[in-house]
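Exam revision sheet. Question 4 asks you to relate a sequence to its structure. Input first:
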Amino acid sequence: MQAFDTISIQTDERGVATLLLDRAEKHNALSAQMIQEITEAAKQLGEDDAVRVVVLKGAGKSFCAGGDLGWMQDQMAADPVTRGREAKALAMMLFALNSMPKPLIGCLTGNAFGGGVGMAAVCDVAIAAEGIKMGLTEVRLGLIPATIGPYVIARLGEANARRVFMSGRLFDAAEALDLGAVSKVVAPDAMDEAIEAEIKPYFAAAPEAVARSKRLALYLGSNITEATIDHSIGELVACWESETAKEGVSAFFEKRKANWVV
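Answer key, structure tokens:
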């Protein structure tokens, strides 16, 4: 398996692969390079017959703080075509993780914002440590949780998603569990044991049957299509073109309140 710069993969003798988001100094925020590397890693792990289960986790204090600041600045200066291409890259990263024919178990610690919530949503099981903070914070910038939206809605359901989808407020581990954003909440020192408990049953399951079962669940469930993905990208690009987004993102980088904040 190839070497990466922003992530790492370690596979043990049992076939448990740990996919580590490895930008601890940036709280594992998603850069263009990281998005591309995660997409490629998901493809490689999905095709590797030696891999039985994948564990997704973040290095350092946070799981994933959302979009990288440099990536956001690039989007501010980009034209609509470039913005659409970058949004497509993020959408296809999530699609690759969501459709990977291996069980994906999320280990969530610290913070998970924006795209980090989207990554939690594509995990088959997401386990959160007590003390985690989560939030769909895009609207604070005049943007929307577009490319992650199909997966967040699929995970939470529309009614629960609407509790947090458009307010931008943060929620804690207990509310994340109530919303369905995570499957289980454990003490930080119990995380390894909880992850192992999720892994163990797969060693008695036929890998091909697991892959087929996951594919069937996706088909019978949300069945996120290319049209769904393209619609979400179009909505995001339209937001980036708006004066609201220009004001919100500028205010963020200038460390001031946007003109709608009261």
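Marking note for examiners. The beta strands are 7-11, 16-21, 53-58, 104-108, 111-113, 125-129, 133-135, 170-172, 184-186.
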